[in-house]
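Invent a record, attention on tokens:
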Amino acid sequence: MAESNQKITVLVTGASGLTGEIAFKKLKERSDKFVVRGLVRSEASKQRLGGGDEIFLGDVMDKKSLETAMQGIDALIILTSAVPKVVPGSYPGADGKRAEDVFGESFDFNGPMPEFYYEEGQFPEQIDWIGQKNQIDTAKSCGVKHIVLVGSMGGTDPNNFLNHMANGNILIRTCFRLRRKHMLKKACPACALRRFELVTQAGMSPPRTATQIPVNFVWKRKAEQYLADSGIPYTIIRAGGLDNKVGGRELLVGKDDELLSTENHFIARADVAEACVQALQIEESKFKAFDLGSMPEGVGEPTKDFKALFALVTTRF
């Protein structure tokens, strides 16, 4: 499939997300190389992408809808992710906004922090683990030849701030106990029996609140490991801090979060999307997992040779 003249039929899941929409449009613009499909959750999202027959309505928790979208595809780009929202009244001018709409290079991480929540059914365990597992299983049953999965840097750090947003643990696997402001630092013995526990519902808005007890597992990394063990050729891209600028920077690959402590951990969503598209065409991207960052805007030369970039990666996971 890679580096051939045959068109590649690709499904982008999460196609209405900020990065997913860019990837979908990039593939659609290259109709000489790709036949693109998109998976979205709502009719409104479908219409925003043009409303064509190539856009499928579905849910990552519903395998039947995934099967319909994946029949006959060659490759899958997984860009679904749990998205926390801002608790009303916790941060000026941000009520109900997604975290990705609030955080950016201009956000002062040393100042007041918003509070976040996940909508019912949209917790990281459901979207980033079960939902991605469903996609991988369905892709395998449909004979998909290559999966590109976009994850996140920070999976090696239990204290990464993403794990403290809405107590959903985007990166870390947890069990939950009802607490107000105190976060326990020790493992919970109940985890030996129950992987996920929420003692109580705490009101209608936000839908759920609780405080986390970190346990040494990772929802996103759990899905990544599942993909790596699936036997399907894969490319796992662990993106750094995302921004919404144009892109076209000099890209850098790393491993084990080594870029996180540098100025190179930011990357434009457009560059992540471009890396996904390029990975579909380049054999050197397969059976590899890597962190992806970039030089600061205006520094270095824009990356053009993705084959050389992927060749620098030596890690399978």
